[in-house]
Amino acid sequence: MTDETMLSHRDFALLRAVASGRTQLTISCEPDMFIDGLAACDQNAVHRLVHLGLIRAANLAAVGERVTAILTTLGASALNASLPHLNSA
């Protein structure tokens, strides 16, 4: 399910925000994302990206704390594969 064709434009927007260093995740089994300090509009998409292994917390912290979100290798690959497709739209 990590094939780029199965990810939505919103998923790719979230991946781009993570890649730009603008995001934080809460430490939780269902982490919430904050972009520029504001809650992301689609937390279900965030949960899916975390569970697919595309994004993760940069470091460990106490449950409920916010930490920087980073792309995993798989997430970076998915984002890089999508760039020509998104730029041609």
Write up what this structure looks like.
The chain is an alpha+beta fold and 89 residues long. It has a single domain (4-84), classed as Arc Repressor Mutant, subunit A. Helix content is 39%, strand content 20%. It is built from three helices and five strands; from the N terminus they run αβββαββα. Strands 3-2-1-5-4 form a five-stranded antiparallel sheet.
Following the backbone from N to C, one meets helices and strands in this order, namely: HEEEHEEH
| CATH architectural grouping | Orthogonal Bundle
Helical residue percent band: 25-40%
Overall shape: it is: globular
Q: Report the structural category.
A: alpha+beta
Strand order of the largest sheet: 3-2-1-5-4
Notable traits:
20% strand; 89 residues; Arc Repressor Mutant, subunit A; 39% helix; alpha+beta; globular; 5-stranded antiparallel sheet
Map the helices and strands.
Blueprint: H1 9-19, E1 23-26, E2 33-35, E3 38-39, H2 43-51, E4 55-57, E5 66-71, H3 73-87
Antiparallel strand pairs: 1-2, 1-5, 2-3, 4-5
Helix pairs in contact: 1-3
In short:
By secondary structure, this protein is of the alpha+beta class.
